[in-house]
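WARN retry 2 of 3 for item q-0093 after timeout on previous attempt; input resubmitted unchanged.
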Amino acid sequence: MKKALVTGAGGFIGSHLVKRLKKEGYWVRGVDLKYPEFSKTQADDFVIGDLREQQVVRKIADSPFDEVYQLAADMGGAGYIFTGEHDADVMHNSATINLNMLEQCRLAKVKKIFYSSSACMYPAYNQEDPANPKCAEDSAYPAAPDSEYGWEKLFSERLYLAYNRNYGMKVHIARFHNIFGPEGTWRGGKEKAPAAICRKVAEAKDGGKIEIWGDGKQTRSFLYIDECLEGVRRLMAFDFSGPVNIGSEEMVTINGLAKMIIDISGKGLSIKNITGPTGVRGRNSDNRLLRQKLGWAPSLKLKDGLTITYKWIESQNNIL
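OK item q-0093 returned
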């Protein structure tokens, strides 16, 4: 039986990844500061621990796991990342986790390690046109991320690749593009756009309004969680380090996203655009390298994933 270590296993993507690995027959150890919020973890062993502490990392990565998935990070949606109020914590916490994890995995002779980077590391100057953003993997330099979160992701990508070059560690790096789905954070300030808008729509009374940050013309693509995990598992099966985009190419404006969710709800709601943090004007996954290297790309329609997600958020006992 293969053994996997999933850090950030109490979070949205990490908890789903644990379930996926268990279905595939792995023995899984999960690690996080907290247990998953919305369902019981399926990990064989779950350690509550702070990966900024070296002694914790030595304890949890104490053997040559077949695969390590490093998803732990200090992160959140636009309201957390783009205000500037959390920059020092975001950079310090995430960088410390990655430095600790990589060194311990090297010492423990881990065979493969996955790192979840982010589309936030792409240059802001290539994402000023909402209709034509440039997010091909080779467009990352000259570097100019739009947030300190993006700068830390870029640094850590280079850190993992340096360990690959200098120590022969098999690293696999994916740049995630806005992953969403059930059991993701939907309130509290760290939620991302799909969950935040689903919550607003679910809470709104028929005939009311929901507030959207910015003019709503900024564009993004959003990837359903199951397709994210499929991409991760395929990447780990190939002899390819990346970085590679894992995201959808179905680009939508934020107002368009809101209208799609309103339609799913069946309510007669209108949109009120207000001042708020928005990030870059346009971002969309470029999946050419993904298709070339993995022979695969996501195909689920955005509305199908949103329908599942909206129904889940609407079903939460304390929302209505």
